[in-house]
Design goal:
The protein has a domain of about 120 residues: VSR Endonuclease (Endonuclease, Chain A). The protein contains eleven helices and four strands, in the order H-H-H-H-H-H-H-H-E-E-E-H-E-H-H. Strands 1-2-3-4 form a four-stranded mixed sheet, sandwiched between helices.
Amino acid sequence: MRIYWTKEEESKLKYYYEDLGLSLSELYNFFIEYYPHRTKTSVELKINKLKLKHTKEQISNIKSRLNSGEGNGMYGKIGPNKGLTKENSERIKNSSMKLSNTLKKMFENGELNRTGDKNGMYGKESWSKGKTKYDDDRLMDNYYRRSISAKNRWDMLSDVEKNIRIGNLSLAANKAKKDTKIEIIIKDKLENMNINFTKNYRCDRYIFDFYLIDYNFVIECQGDYWHGNNEYFKILNEIQIKNIERDKNKRKYLEENKIKSLFLWENEIYKFKENLEEIILNKLNDN
């Protein structure tokens, strides 16, 4: 017995297919929850009869979704070039040279010139201009997929690799900042003492203000506010608590790796400014 389509069914189908931009295989799983009597073939025929269409953007997103994860033909397989480079594979080396020569000839013939009006986007506006992930579903979808991919890559790293990456990021952030006044004072003192040192020294994930090369010794300059000196700040905010925890981890790391250290508070640096060289020397000679 033929079961005629209701307006509600057609409306639901249009919503899944055109409004949400789902493929037939994707929307069918949702559709049969409401209308279990409909077969996949009947749904497909109805889509054609109603002349429902996807936009180019939706088609691109569908291809991307269906070809990711287990839907990708290479899922769970090892690529033929894994571990091969032009240094250890004659085939890869020859292919690289062939591609390089081809691109060179194309460049010389002007075929690779994509500047000015030869650029496909010349005079056009990007589809994403003025849009953000908060007001555009496509941007949000791309952001979400990149976020998941980045998290998966991070989870696959070893602890050593994670520490190296965190350390490099912290180092870059420290180098981008100007030296604080108390760091400049310590820097001047060390130079006056003719001590070899490295500024913003990285050990694993941690960055230390000064590393005295010949002594395997670290000096840390701690701002009273940012590092939560409890002599002045009894109630701490989230940033101070976070920095205090990091300072504890730094001290623990130094102890475990037998690196001597001197942590100086901001007020101490100003208060004992004239005696800093003596304080540093005494700490260096302290067993």
